Amino acid sequence: MLLVGTKLFTLGRWEMAFVDAVPKLNEVRDLRIYFPESLSQLHELELEIFSHASEKAISTVAYLKIKKMDCWRISFVMEKAKLAPSHGHTISQLELCAALLATQVAHIVQDNIRMRVDKVPKHGSRRHRSKSQQDTLDETK
């Protein structure tokens, strides 16, 4: 029997097992190995963030890049996407939303990887920028 609010439910055996297991979900830890080799010889660690906005959705993806000697290795860390509002937003506004999402993902990753990150370059989509805007951006780099 399960009491939810003022209602009492009769549960089967598998349902009771599920209800008993739910509180234990807080104890689950996901050990993710980003690179198979030791990071003791690490020269540089970057967290690359890419974001994109369209009329239908905004998204961002994060990758870890390590440099050992003269070799770069890349590993996927996480992604996040959201549906765009159905109307009332320009692509520029959605790109700002995607940039905010990218910043949130960067903070989540940095808080959880427990490694020193040297750089966090963020890259947004460029398909909606005019040629003069892109030239200005390229000159400031």
What portion of residues belong to β-strands? Answer: 25-35%
- The low-pLDDT segments are 128-137
Helix content: 25-40%
Q: From the alpha-carbon coordinates, what is the Rg to the nearest angstrom?
A: 22 Å
Query: Helix- and strand-based class?
Result: alpha+beta
Question: Biggest sheet: strands side by side, in what order?
Answer: 5-4-3-6
Task: Give the total of domains.
Answer: 1
3D architecture notes:
By secondary structure, the chain is α+β, with helices and mostly antiparallel strands. It has a single domain, classed as Roll (Ubiquitin-like (UB roll)), CATH 3.10.20.370. A hairpin with a 3-residue loop joins strand 3 and strand 4. It is flat, with a radius of gyration of 22 Å. About 7% of the residues have low confidence.
Question: In brief, what are we looking at here?
Answer:
The chain has 141 residues and is α+β, with helices and mostly antiparallel strands. It has helices at 13-21, 91-113, 131-140, and strands spanning 2-4, 7-9, 44-53, 57-68, 71-83, 122-123.
